[in-house]
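$ run holo --ligand "iron/sulfur cluster" --emit tokens
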Amino acid sequence: MNLSEQIRQLCQEKNAIIMAHYYQRPEIQDVADFVGDSLALAQVAATTDADIIVMCGVHFMAETAKILCPDKKVLIPEPAAGCSLADSCKAEDLAAWKAEHPDHLVVSYVNTSAAVKALTDVVVTSSNALKIVKQLPEDKPILFGPDQNLGGYINLMTGRKMDLWNGGCHVHARFSVEAILSLKQQYPDTKVLAHPECKAVVLQHADVIGSTQALLNYAKEHPEQKRFIVATESGILHEMQKACPDVAFIPVPAEGGGCNECEYMRMNTLQKLYDCLLNESNEIVVDESVAKDAIRPIQRMLEMS
Ligand code: CIZ
Ligand code: SF4
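-- output --
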């Protein structure tokens, strides 16, 4: 048996489920039971009857699964798979910001630690952020963190004036505007699909702005388009290509050239996935009192999305 087949066999023996984010390596997406964005991963985690969840994604995604499923064993193939965006907002800094604005609601992007979520009123992902912010009382001021680009995009689309934390994703910050312009020149009439974590100057050139799931759905729902220019982590191209085999998806390169990959997402490998499932290692532990406070804004998100 090859490694993927051995992983599938272990899943059966252990009643384990493998969940993978769209930014994972293609071979991990292919072996997973479920592939999705962080909203879908949280929704599946909330309802699975598996005993073990292996979260092939970054640390905050595994933490979210653990918070939603405290009685299950949640494993991550590479525990060092972090997120520069989540790291840009420490719980103590958010606590200080909140203290300066005691009348504000706190809306946090899902790319945050459990400790930050514990200080939050409602969590959002890029799939449901607009929908959720629109449901919040209009007279209530909002602190939004940590992604400034996503927050700016929500402000633009909703007319809210949320105060924004100054954080960002280093992968989405480095898409080259020049490359987009030259790709648009090379392929006129080709739509640009972009993630709202991209800089506003990139979003200005986008035809469709949305989460990985929304961009994927757009491609699926527009079979008349034979080509797309894509500005998000290039891992999503695997699922796009599978869903739309006759369409060309052109990734926007990073400034200075090269494919725009998240090095944290790529830390998980098939071998590490196998080892972690076999040994049930790298178990995620969330402090109970933190988990108790963090589950409320996640559940609120699931209800509101
Ligand atoms: O929410 C997620 O899964 C992320 C990090 C990206 C996206 O838009 O799907
Ligand atoms: Fe974090 Fe950006 Fe990597 Fe997503 S792509 S995990 S936001 S560093």
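-- notes --
The longest strand covers residues 16-21.
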